[in-house]
């Protein structure tokens, strides 16, 4: 019986995987990879069978139970099975289902962490999510509710956090802004949108909660994050004028 490694691929750039992850890729017999994994990272495993299991690539969702079963079956054939997931596997990556299914089948499993996209965005913006004296709390959240899951109350935690990062949220950004405003988040709260963090074609948009409500996230097609909080005030301000800005007057009116 082989072992399954759930490896974080990082945010996209091929050199942002950990050394441990890269070493395992070199030795893998088979790699099951997500849609967000970039092709140049797969070049680290030329010897391995490479299997795409993601929505964006195949345009059809690969059923989670199918992935779970595949991992168990692969462990019977290969010594090193790699499940390569974007960012960190343990954040919004459905790692738990895979770990539990492997445990239930008696297959050894190990998780190798990765750089989550929120931290890549922070690095690229040059803005600390915990800016001293401004932010003592960071919330990673998603409004996305998976099939068969209960609706979670994500909004109050996001509205109360000093800094918040929303994953899988750009598609409904305007609606989300309304929900956060209803939760008491000030309309002038600085907001930054980061698309394709760590990749050469990454894009940053600076706006406010008001701007988000008015459609600042429209036109983003790649994977993107919504980042909220006072720590972004200066950066949102400098981005304004460089990129799309839709009604961020409240931000301009309240300089720090
Ligand atoms: N486990 C991943 C998140 C998977 S959920 C991680 O730790 O980053 C997928 C969401 O992650 C996307 O909808 C997007 O919000 C975010 N994301 C992933 N890669 C990204 C990137 N390079 N730039 C911006 N957002 C990204």
Number of strands: 10
Which secondary-structure class do the elements indicate?
A: alpha/beta
The CATH homologous superfamily of the largest domain is named: Tetrapyrrole methylase, C-terminal domain
Estimate the global geometry from the Cα principal axes: elongated
Averaged pLDDT, please? 89
CATH T-level topology of the largest domain: Methyltransferase, Cobalt-precorrin-4 Transmethylase, Domain 2
Describe this structure in words.
The chain is 33% helix and 20% strand. By secondary structure, it is of the alpha/beta class. The protein folds into two domains: 3-112, Cobalt-precorrin-4 Transmethylase, domain 1 (3-Layer(aba) Sandwich); 117-252, Methyltransferase, Cobalt-precorrin-4 Transmethylase, Domain 2 (2-Layer Sandwich). The chain has a five-stranded parallel beta sheet, with helices on both faces. A five-stranded mixed beta sheet has the order 6-7-10-8-9, sandwiched between helices. Helix 4 (64-77) crosses helix 5 (95-104). S-adenosyl-L-homocysteine binds at residues 11-12, 36, 85-88, 91-93, 116-117, 167-168, 194-198, 223-225.
Short description:
Helix content is 33%, strand content 20%. With 256 residues, the protein is an alpha/beta fold.
Topology:
Elements: E1 3-8, H1 19-27, E2 30-33, H2 39-42, E3 49-52, H3 55-58, H4 64-77, E4 80-85, H5 95-104, E5 108-112, H6 117-125, E6 138-141, H7 154-160, E7 163-166, H8 173-182, E8 190-195, E9 203-208, H9 209-213, E10 224-229, H10 233-239, H11 249-253
Parallel strand pairs: 1-4, 1-5, 2-3, 2-4, 6-7
Antiparallel strand pairs: 7-10, 8-9, 8-10
The structure holds S-adenosyl-L-homocysteine (SAH).
